[in-house]
Amino acid sequence: MAKEIKKDIKPEKKPGQPQAAKQDKKPKEHKSQAVVSSVAAGPVAPPPQGYVVRLKEAYFSRVLPALLKDFNLTSPMAAPKVTKIVINIGVTEAKENIQALDLAKEDLTLISGQAPQVRRAKKSISNFKLREGMPIGVRVTLRGIRMFEFMDRFISLAVPRIRDFQGFDARLFDGRGNLNIGLKEHHIFPEVNMEKSPKPHGMNITFVTTAGDNKKGQALLEYLGLPFKKAKV
Description:
The protein is an alpha+beta fold. It has six helices and five strands, in the order αααβαββαββα. It has a five-stranded antiparallel beta sheet.
C-alpha cells in the first residue's frame, strides 16, 4: 500500500531551480496526408478525384468506335490502345558534372509531371571513360492519367514547336505497333525554363501500344492526334 501512495506523490521543486521547458508534441501526420503535402506544391501533385483528361475521353468516345469499324473488331477489348509512354533524356556530361543531371531531372519532372529515375551505366567502357554505375541520364514511365495528359500536351503544344516539322515517319514503328521518336532538343516543351536550362538535351519518347502491328499502331496514334508524314504514292 505504501508503494502505491509513493507513486502518486510528485517530487517537490527546489527554490531557484529552473523549470524544464515543455516540449510541444506534434500530432502524427497521416501517411496519406504526408504524401499529398510533399507533392502538392510541385508538378507531381495527384489529380483531383473524378478528373478526366480530354484525350482519354476522346479515346473512348471517338477513337475506339473508329478503330472497331476500320479493323472489323467485335470487342472493345480487342481494339489497340496506348499502355505506357517512356521518356528518356541522355546526359553525357553527368559523369563529370552532377549539376547537369539534377537539371535534367528537374526538366523531365516539369515535362512529364512525374519524378524520373536516374539511368546508370550497366558496364564500363574505357574509350568513353565510363564506369559501371555512373549516371548517364534520366527516365520516366507514364501510365494512366499522366500518360494521357502528357500525350495531349505533346500533340497540342510541343509538336507544333518542332522546327521544319512535316510529320513523323511511319518507319519509326518497331513492327509491333510501338512508336519510337527521337527529338533533338527538349526546349519544344513550354514547361522548360530556357534561362535556367539553356543547353538543349536530346530525348527519346516511346509510345507502347497493344496494336501488335504497325498499321493498327499508326491508326491508333493518328486518331489520337499524332501527325504522320503522308505516304508517297
